[in-house]
Amino acid sequence: MSTPEVRRTITDPAALDALAHPVRLDLLSFLMSHGSATASECARAVDDSPSNSSYHLRVLAKHGLVEPTSSEDGRERPWRATITGLSLDAEATDPAVIASATAMVEASLLLDYQLAREHVRRRDRIEGPWRNVDAHAQYGLRVTPDELRSIVERVDAVIRPFIAATRDDAPDDAAAASISLVAFPRPTFAEATR
Predict the structure, then answer these.
(1) CA 148 to CA 183: how far, in whole Å?
(2) What's 153's domain CATH number?
(3) What would the pLDDT profile of 79-134 be if each residue is shown by its tens digit?
């Protein structure tokens, strides 16, 4: 059994601008994979201060990406993600949307590679079965646009059942993990051989 997916296509330039910040992206990712958490818990997870995390959570809430939720004791103020994933409008023509989406993707890529570098630096301190399951793979492909789109869609289909925000059947020894996929054409390679 799994939780229903709530994937939102972000088209508002202001929401995209809000997501063009690495702390906000990391907070949203944490809440999507962890579930409800207080600003202090979020801060510990993303290596930030509680007051700064609280500010960034309020910015995300302004755009409907997170919301405060009730706590068991009524004293804590937990937050939860309102989405399980997001997409961008690939057909956008509005220059403001394109510029904001570009900034958001750039921030997301920077965060992904920052987190990967941090992992590599501390990899030797990981013990047990998690030590040797990381991967870094880069492939130079020769494909058509339809083939590249198909590859990305097939990889997405393999990964989607394991997304933390929607997975209710995770084994007891499951833990948070990150997979990033970057796929893009390399026109300069073709130009270099002309």
Answers:
(1) 8
(2) 1.10.10.10
(3) 999 999 999 988 899 999 999 999 999 999 999 999 999 999 999 999 888 888 89
CA–CA separation, 12 vs 65, rounded Å? 12
Residue 123 lies in a domain: yes
Residue 2 lies in a domain: no
**Of 85, 58, 99, 53, nearest to 163 (Cα)?**
85
In whole angstroms, how far apart are CA 18 and each of 118, 142, 172?
24, 36, 35
Dihedral sign for Cα 62, 182, 155, 159, please: negative
Section 138-161 average pLDDT: 94
Average pLDDT score over the chain: 91
- Polymer length in residues for the chain: 194
Number of domains present in the structure of the chain: 1
- Structural contact between residues 32 and 108, judged by C-beta atoms closer than 8 angstroms: no
Number of H helices, E strands in the chain: 7, 4
On whether the CB atoms of residues 104 and 16 are closer than 8 A, the answer is yes
* Residue 75 lies in domain: 7-192
Higher pLDDT, 117 or 4: 117
Give the residue carrying structure tokens 């492939």: 139
Residue with tokens 């590859």: 151
pLDDT of residue 70: 84
- Asked, for residue 107, whether it belongs to a domain, the answer is yes
